[in-house]
Amino acid sequence: MLLNGKQLADSILNSLKTRVDDALKARAPSTASSTNRLFLAPGRKPCLAVVQVGHRPDSSRYVETKTKAASRVGVDTSFSVKLADNVSEAEVVEAIQGLNANPEVDAILVQLPLPRSMDQEKILACIDMSKDVDGFHPANMGLLARWGEVARQQASQGNSLPRSNVPCTPLGIITLLDHYSIPIAGKRAVVLGRSNIVGLPISLMLLHRDASVTVLHSKSLQVEEHVVQADIVIAAMGKPQAVKASWIKPGAAVVDVGINVSPQTGKLVGDVDFEAVSKVAGYITPVPGGVGPLTVAMLIQSTVHNFCVKYSL
Ligand code: GUN
Questions:
Q1: Bridge partners of residue 277, in order along the sequence
Q2: Distance between Cα 111 and ligand 1 center (Å)
Q3: Atom 2 of ligand 1 has which residue's CA nearest to it?
Q4: Which entry of 45, 52, 66, 131 is annotated as an active-site residue?
């Protein structure tokens, strides 16, 4: 069965639009007795600020896709910043600090990769963790390690922990598995790749959902022996069509996070040999139209979530 990320992302964006429209119409309750909750009428749209440094064509395409999805839902992106690739690290930090201090900004995303000359970790750590919509700040990563994606809801559960932001691609993967009622608890999951953006956080989320998780990477040996036992395979290693049909247990769910240009055809392909693997897998995501659109939908969802938490909506 095809896991249709595009269709799910569209329906999530449509419900977010309704939620934003309703939030903008919301008024403070007229009688004091109707609620004693803090209620502030927002009087503005949710706001996502994207910081792009340099003009990499792939980054510009991603930023454009995110901006379009935001405007479809009614999320403002007018505080976004584009900086030349020869700006100093201090100028990038200054731009982020300005967005941190701006009460009208709910979510900040620094498009990666940054120019090589910059200390990426230092820059990500400057983002206010409550606005860090990518969840890459060390404090958000720490909360994810401790609590999984549930950490997003901590504040509303009356817990004293700060509410976390969670990386968008892994959140999209969990949302997709849940939508198609693919069980996670007690299942064997293999994650191919250990990047901070996908491999590491999705491993933590699957672990917190009670999967038995194996993380494989460029130094792993006997990769196929592990993968063939998996009920859930997350391919996020950035190698075109590397996951072969012979690696897949019949009926397994295969989620392809790869976005590569095929050296043979010049077409967009994932990390999975889709044609062959789709004959063995029980569930599989296409590329394009699988995980990519969900990443964008989760970004907008988390932006709206931050806005709604701020105004108790
Ligand atoms: N570059 C590639 N993927 C991502 C992502 O999820 N977030 C950011 N900020 N940059 C990226």
A1: none
A2: 5
A3: 112
A4: 66
Q: Tell me which residue has tokens 């004959």.
A: 279
Do 161 and 154 meet the contact criterion of CB atoms below 8 Å apart?
A: yes
Please enumerate in sequence order all residues whose Cβ is within 8 A of that of 186, keeping only pairs 6 or more positions apart, or say none. 210, 211, 212
Amino acid identity, position 86: N
Q: What's the mean pLDDT when you consider all of the chain?
A: 93
pLDDT per residue over 163-214, tens digit each? 889 999 999 999 999 999 999 999 999 999 999 999 999 999 999 999 999 9
Residue 132 near ligand 1, beta carbon < 6 Å: no
Structure tokens at 33: 């007795």
* Tens digits of residue pLDDT in 16-46: 999 999 888 876 555 544 455 555 668 899 9
Instruction: Report pTM.
Output: 0.94
Place of tokens 């949302």: 175
**pLDDT for res 293:** 98
Buried-exposed string 6-27: b where 16+ CB fall within 10 A, e elsewhere: eebbeebbeebbebbeebeebe
Is residue 264 flagged as an active site residue?
no
Tell me how far apart the alpha carbons of residues 288 and 127 are, in angstroms, rounded to a whole number.
31
Contacts 24+ apart (CB under 8 A), 275-282: 276/244, 276/245, 277/243, 277/244, 277/245, 277/248, 278/2, 279/245, 280/245, 280/248, 280/249, 280/250, 280/252, 281/248, 281/250, 281/251, 281/252, 281/253, 281/254, 282/1, 282/250, 282/251, 282/252, 282/253
- Region 143-156: what's the mean pLDDT? 74
Phi/psi at 255 (5° precision) = -110, 120
- Which of 76, 132, 134, 273 is labelled catalytic? 134
